[in-house]
Specification:
By secondary structure, this protein is α/β, with parallel strands linked by helices. The protein has helices spanning about 5-10, 15-30, 45-55, 60-80, 95-105, 115-130, 170-185, 200-205, 215-230, 290-295; strands spanning about 35, 85-90, 110-115, 135, 140, 155-160, 190-195, 240-245, 250-260, 260-265, 270-275, 280-285, 300-310, 315-320. It contains 10 helices and 14 strands. Strands 2, 3, 4, 5, 6, 7, 13 and 14 form an 8-stranded mixed beta sheet that branches. Strands 1-12-9-8 form a 4-stranded mixed beta sheet. A two-stranded antiparallel sheet has the order 10-11. Strand 13 (about 300-310) and strand 14 (about 315-320) form a beta hairpin. The longest helix has 19 residues, at about 60-80. Bound molecules: N,N-dimethyl-L-histidine.
């Protein structure tokens, strides 16, 4: 029986998104090593926990990137043609985009996100504070090609991808995202992108193993979500959060470790765990300037200028589409 039929038989009538979630979970937990995609962290609870992570003392990326945008915003804006259309890939809190909008006169702002509801709330807030700005939200998966609104057809385009979300993509996915963005934004485009940098391993370790345990709750929440949305029976107390830095692959890895031998049932499927066995839930790649420049270059962009904070923790780059 497929997952959808099984869900119906158990009284879980799935919509399209939940069916896709179920299919991914069942396929990925059947593999060895077991894994889950980080895109499933972000239900309402996961998104709220992520907002809490961004203000933790150990989690430096958000405040460091905000500092760069605040301190260097004028310089970042200087080489942007006016009026351009600013296209944000993935729409989170508006704090970062507001810093760009304050420093640079954009003709239009196009936030792109899969969640249409979230987008319209965000758009309303910005329209109020920037009454001269045309806001055209697009509800789409920004990792695959989508059409830009006709209203910005004649304006130069500037992409915006802050937060080092690029780091959560595998290197081949990061390259394909940059290529897709280049195609969508078209010739002559620019892109402002935030990228987390390689650094002291202790700093990285602490950022993903915070003392207050918020990252642990964020990681474990994906199991809560499977229990709630797919009728799984994960015992949360039988899994431990662990983040490690994989030096060879330049990435933080997040895992959920089984504390004992156990079986978990999800939609009629049985998954057995050995003591100490991991579910690999996220990678967060850290780049050097050289490796990021090479990635951009091989993906249709060249780095025009880069900015960093005094401690060289985080970087913001202005890319231009190469011919
Ligand atoms: C969203 N992303 C850039 C975060 C990161 O740092 O990789 C997600 C995160 N995972 C644990 N803490 C934060």
């Amino acid at each position: 029986m497929n997952v959808h039929a099984h869900a119906l038989a158990q009284g879980y009538p799935f919509d399209e998104q939940t069916s896709a979630f179920a299919g991914d979970v069942i396929e990925n937990l059947a593999q060895y090593p077991k894994r889950l995609s980080p895109k499933y962290f972000y239900d309402a609870t996961g998104s709220a926990l992520f907002e809490q992570i961004t203000v933790l003392p150990e989690y430096y990326p958000t405040r460091t990137e905000l500092g760069i945008l605040r301190d260097r915003g004028r310089e970042i804006a200087a080489d942007i043609p006016k009026p351009a259309a600013l296209v944000e890939f993935g729409a989170g809190a508006t704090t970062k985009v507001r810093l760009l909008l304050q420093h640079c006169e954009f003709g239009a702002y196009v936030p792109v996100d899969i969640s249409g509801e979230f987008l319209s709330a965000q758009a309303d807030g910005l329209r109020k504070d920037f009454p001269d700005l045309d806001v055209h939200p697009v509800a789409a998966d920004f990792t695959t090609p989508f059409a830009l609104p006709a209203e910005i057809a004649d304006m130069p385009k500037v992409g915006f991808f802050p937060g080092s979300t690029l780091g959560n993509f595998e290197p081949h996915e990061a390259s394909s995202f940059l290529r897709t963005a280049r195609e969508i934004l078209s010739d002559g485009a620019q892109m402002i992108i935030g990228v987390d940098l390689e650094k002291d391993e202790r700093v990285l370790y602490d950022a993903y193993n915070d003392a207050a345990g918020v990252t642990a709750r964020f990681n474990l929440n994906v199991l809560v979500r499977i229990n709630r949305e797919l009728g799984g029976n994960f015992d949360l107390s039988a899994f431990t959060h662990r983040s490690i830095y994989n030096r060879d692959r330049h990435r933080i890895e997040m895992h959920l470790i089984s504390r004992k031998a156990q079986n978990v049932r999800i939609l009629g499927n049985n998954f057995s765990f050995r003591p100490g066995e991991s579910i690999h839930t996220e990678n967060s790649y850290k780049y050097s300037f050289e490796r990021f420049t090479a990635l951009a270059r091989s993906s249709g962009w060249s780095v025009r200028k880069s900015w960093t904070d005094p401690a060289r923790m985080f970087s913001v780059h202005a890319l231009v589409a190469s011919d």
